[in-house]
Amino acid sequence: MLRQPVKLKLGYIVIYIATGCLGFLIIYLFDIVSLKRLPVVKPGTWILGSGLLVYALVMVCLRSDRLPLPIWSTWLGWALLSTSLLLLVYSLFINLPFHSTYIAPGVGNKLIKTGLYALVRHPGIHWFILVLVSLILVSSSSLLLIAAPIFVSLNIVLVTVQDKLFLGRMFDGYDRYRQETPMLVPNRQSINAFINSLKQQLGA
């Protein structure tokens, strides 16, 4: 009698994690579509890929056994979720020009090196990790403990492929940007560049 629930949980793990992986694969195709200058496929690619990933995360949170976390962790999770989600949205859709990056055919017409992109070349990774941590605290999902490391690993693979194969072809000056700004871990130079960028934006 105990085997059926176990098989059902394993089925959830496979289905939802596979759905999230498919989302990452489609997001990976976004760069190829951008280089091919396909107008309708471009926004459809990131909407479909992001939608599958969000669906997988929601279902992983809902269809899971609950971890025995204290009540205060839920409040901490909501505070962390609101902050990390805002920073994720800002880094992907505001710091980057939304229309040229996600809607217009081709690639963006300008390499963004200011704001969070002065700190590291792929700041969205950090906020995505914090979103997953906050979801674990909010939902107490034991299944998310399995899914989160897989999704984080896929995200790092995605941005590594972007960085090495696509972004240099998309933007003039990216090779120099790669030399000046670390990929994921800030250093003293990038922290100073980030602070100076904030000062310039606030001064403007």
Tags for this model:
mainly alpha, 9 helices
Task: Kindly describe this structure.
The protein has 204 residues and is mainly alpha-helical. It has nine helices and no strands. α3 packs antiparallel against α6 and α6 runs antiparallel to α7. The termini are far apart.
Give the secondary structure arrangement, pairings included.
Elements: H1 3-36, H2 41-62, H3 71-94, H4 98-103, H5 116-119, H6 124-139, H7 144-170, H8 174-180, H9 188-203
Mean pLDDT: 89
Oligomer: single chain
Gyration radius, in Å? 19 Å
Give a quick account of the main beta sheet: strands, pairing sense, barrel closure. none
> What pattern of helices and strands is seen along the backbone?
HHHHHHHHH
Distance between the ends: 67 Å
Summarize the structure.
76% of the residues lie in helices and 0% in strands. The protein has 204 residues and is an all-alpha fold.
